Every structure is written in C-alpha cells, then in structure tokens.
Amino acid sequence: MKNLKLRMMMGAFLALMVMSGKAQKWEHLADTPQMGWSTWNKFQGNISEEVIKGIADAMVENGLRDAGYTYINIDDCWHGKRDADGFIQADPVKFPNGMKAVADYVHSKGLKLGIYSDAGTGTCAGMPGSLGHEYQDAIQYARWGVDYLKYDWCNTTNVNPQGAYQLISDALRAAGRPIFLSMCEWGNSHPWKWAKEIGHSWRTTPDIWCDFDSLRVFEAGYTQFGVMQCIQFNDSLRQYAGKGYWNDPDMLEVGNGMTDNEDRAHFTMWCMMASPLILGNDLRSMSEATKNIIMNKEMIAIDQDTLGIQGLHYCDKDGLQFWFKPLAGGDWAFTILNPTKQDITYALNWQDFNLTDKEVSGLSTSFDTKVYQVYNLWTHKMEGKTNIKNKTERKLMVKARDVVSYRLIIKP
To answer: In the chain, how many domains are there?
Structure first.
C-alpha cells in the first residue's frame, strides 16, 4: 500500500509537469542577494543537530538575524541512507531527532533552514546524490520544511547541467514549498547565460579557501581560489546579475583566520559585487573585530540595495582598484581596494571619476555637475562632500589588503 501510494504521488507530480510545461523557479525569494550562514567553511563534515541549534541561537543573540542573515544552511555530510521507497533520510547519529525537528527549531528562531544535495550519483563527500531521485528529494525537503537548497555538481559524468538544474528546479516547484535554489557547478558551463529562470544564484568560481590572494592546488587537479581570485573571476559578469538572480563567488571566510584588514576587504568586495553573504565562521565564538565586520549594517545595505546592480570595477591605478556601485535613489557606493602588501597613499580627485555605467544601469556619477556627501562606511563618519573644482584633492591612506569605502549621498 505504501509503495502504491508513493507511485500515485509521483505520477500526479509528473502529470502536473506535463500539463503545465516547464516550471519556473519560485519568484521573489532573491529580490536581493541571499544572506545567512553555512556549515562547510568551518565545520565541513563535523556537523550535528547540536551545532545547528547552537548557531541558530547565536544568530539571534548576536543580532545577526536582525541584520538580515536569514538562512542556516547545512552543507554536505548530513545524509543518512534512503529508505525502502527511496526517500533520503538524515544521518541518525548526527541528527537523532530528524531534519524536520531541526527545521522546526530554526523556524522558531525566526530563521530559515537550508540543505545540500548534488546533481550526480553522489555528493562531493560521497553521500547519496539526487540523480534519479529529484522529485522524491524535493518532496522530502518540502515535508521537512526546508527553505533553501544548495545543489552541487560532483559525480555528474554524462549529465547535462542545464537539464539537471532545470529538473531540480521543476521538482522544487512541483513539491509546493518555496525553496531557494543555489546552483553550484563552479561556473563550468557558464550558467549566467542560461539559468536566469532556473535558479536564484549560481557559483561563478571554484571553491574559496581562507587566503587573500593565492591558489590552493590539490594533487587530484582540484584548485581552490583565494579572495582576489574569486573577485577576478566574478567582476566581469555583472551584466548577468539582477533582482532574482545573482552571481555567487562563494561563501565568506571572514573570521576564519585572515587578518582584520583582509576580512574587511573581503566583506566589502562581496557587498560591492552584490554577492550572496553566506557566513562561514563559528558564530558562537567570534571576535569583536569579526562581529563588527559582518554586522556593519551600512555596508550590508550596499549589498542589499534595491536597485540590484553588481558593482563596476572601473579602473586600476597606482596599485589600487577603483569600484563603483549605483544605488537606489541616486547614491553611489565607492570603494578603493588595495590588494597589495604595502600601504598606499592616494590623492583622490573626484573629477577623475566622471563615468557612465553604460553596460548595466546607464547611470552617471556626474561629479562635474552633482555634489555628494561623503560618508565613510567603516569609520561611520561624514567626510565632507565632493566638489566640482578640478584642482581639489583628498589625500587618502589605503592600508595593505584593505579598503576605503564610501557611500556618496546625493544632496537634494
């Protein structure tokens, strides 16, 4: 009887898809880039119900939930076996009360639960993948109360990426619960060109690791990127990002071992690029410096700006990178990134940066005709205003592997 009921259920879903044609992803789950926390960068496979509940508590107590961090995402290694009907189960040792109990606890804190699977026969850590079980897994996630799915790309020999991601997107839609779809095939098939109606974000880079500017190459040929490598791969794709679909240069490593300068630059650049802000540190024991970085609500507002434009890497000069991001209401975010190991002094003349964002927004800074108030997003102080006189310069010190970042507020 149980197997018959299952077959009838699956048949109904498939019939629905045939009648309605290709389904679209759930809308309005990503009007701004997603914010939350994931197990992988800090814990990898060492996860448990206790860890997840502790992180949920910390997100509330530290004010992270109120700052906009919504999702608690359980990455690889939560899986148990499939039951006799093929439905995936949680590891009974790591999650003795089951995944629905974890979701209920997370929801009770005003947060949302994310989970992880893979389009192949197995996950990257060798757990059961979703290939051939896509609709069953979507039904199970909906039963549990899952709100977010990270869908990876290991063990996918002879699997078509566009078809695989369309399939899981259709399955999530058919299961009836709005679930955010985070695509993670590392940019190999250029998903920014075809996945706008399929997923809510897509990885543009290989996995990040906790280093500011170097690669980590494994014997098997697998390479991880430092922060600067992720920025370099992501910054040429801004025309493909917007409300509901975001370029994802991977999760944040803030608080996992880089210097405070490097962490601040890392966080700032993810905000400038309108990237997902998925924390990866242990929120239960972070330093005040780390907390101050990830809790900078004025910088978060740059990432979450409702105009939905990824920042522009405008130019490089004197060892520095100059970035602009148009904001709703006529403001601009302006960041000078120093990726070098030396402090650099720079004489800033606003007239050097009269630009028009022809590629995406069509907006212009117009420093020659407009005056902006200059607000420092890290010191939280006003620093005067821009000017329309060519000769006036502002002397700045941009510390090694750090940023100077402003919100330029248009005067009424």
So the answer is: 2
